[in-house]
Specification:
By secondary structure, the chain is mostly helical. The chain is built from 10 helices and 2 strands.
């Protein structure tokens, strides 16, 4: 995560979201020259909605390709063999998308198709074990997103450099914590069970991740608003939309996991 500072124009160098950083927008403006077509916040949200629609269609397909059969009294999910390969492709495309801002539209659609398929498979597996959990996760995610957007728009939540720095530090600490837990689990598997199952600590960690994912949306809103005001070229709307959707996906997956732990 890049450190959050202010440049002379008052723009944050990073929102904490790796796909939303000032350097990419500055390069786009320098390489693209001056153009009458400029990025707007509305264009970003419309493109984000289109990317989410593509992801939903891909998720429905992934769901349909995931078979469920019964062994005795237990239902077993047969995950499509291609899921792991598609998941790896989605990860690689996401990494490419963070830097290939000129190809953000193409990269965004490819990522949504791959990630959507994987999410559809995962949702199908959760739905078999927990009836109605996917619908609940969608409603909760939508409610959190709209709630954060309202809180930001009404200035109830003010995105200051300190606020964004706290988000960046928390995300960095979370990544470091995951690595340490994984490392310790190699020597004692009970540590992984303690943090990643429905123990009080595990549920507490899941709640923390959902809260962090929700709060991280506010800096994204702020960053998009500021690059729009700075006159960023219109094609960068796809790049900004891609970054915003990454945050929404993280929130949805975190909510889904929290609901599963709470119902287990």
């Amino acid at each position: 995560m890049a450190a959050t500072t202010q440049n002379n124009g008052g723009l944050m160098e990073s929102s904490g979201n790796p796909a939303l950083n000032l350097a990419a927008f500055q390069k786009a403006e320098q390489q693209g020259g001056t153009s009458d077509a400029k990025l707007t916040t509305l264009s970003v949200y419309l493109r984000a909605g289109l990317l989410l629609l593509v992801m939903i269609i891909a998720a429905i397909f992934g769901w349909s390709q995931t078979e469920v059969f019964s062994i005795g009294n237990q239902q077993v999910v047969d995950i499509p063999p291609a899921t792991w390969c598609i998941s790896m492709i989605a990860f690689i495309v996401a990494m490419v998308g963070i830097f290939a801002y000129k190809a953000a539209a193409v990269v965004g659609f490819i990522y949504m198709l791959c990630q959507g398929f994987v999410i559809g498979v995962v949702c199908r597996a959760y739905a078999v074990e927990y009836d109605g959990i996917v619908a609940q996760a969608i409603v909760v995610t939508l409610a959190i997103f709209l709630g954060m957007l309202i809180l930001y728009s009404t200035k109830i939540i003010k995105v200051t450099p300190g606020f964004v720095s706290a988000i960046v530090v928390a995300m960095s600490g979370l990544l470091l914590g995951y690595f340490v837990i994984w490392l310790l689990s190699l020597f004692d598997p009970r540590i992984g069970v303690l943090f990643f199952t429905n123990t009080p600590i595990g549920i507490g960690l899941a709640v923390f991740i959902v809260v962090l994912a929700a709060l991280s949306l506010a800096p994204d809103f702020k960053f998009i608003e500021m690059v729009a005001a700075s006159g960023a070229p219109s094609y960068m709307a796809w790049y900004a939309a891609f970054g915003l959707v990454l945050g929404i996906i993280w929130l949805f997956v975190s909510v889904l996991r929290l609901l599963a732990l709470s119902r287990r």
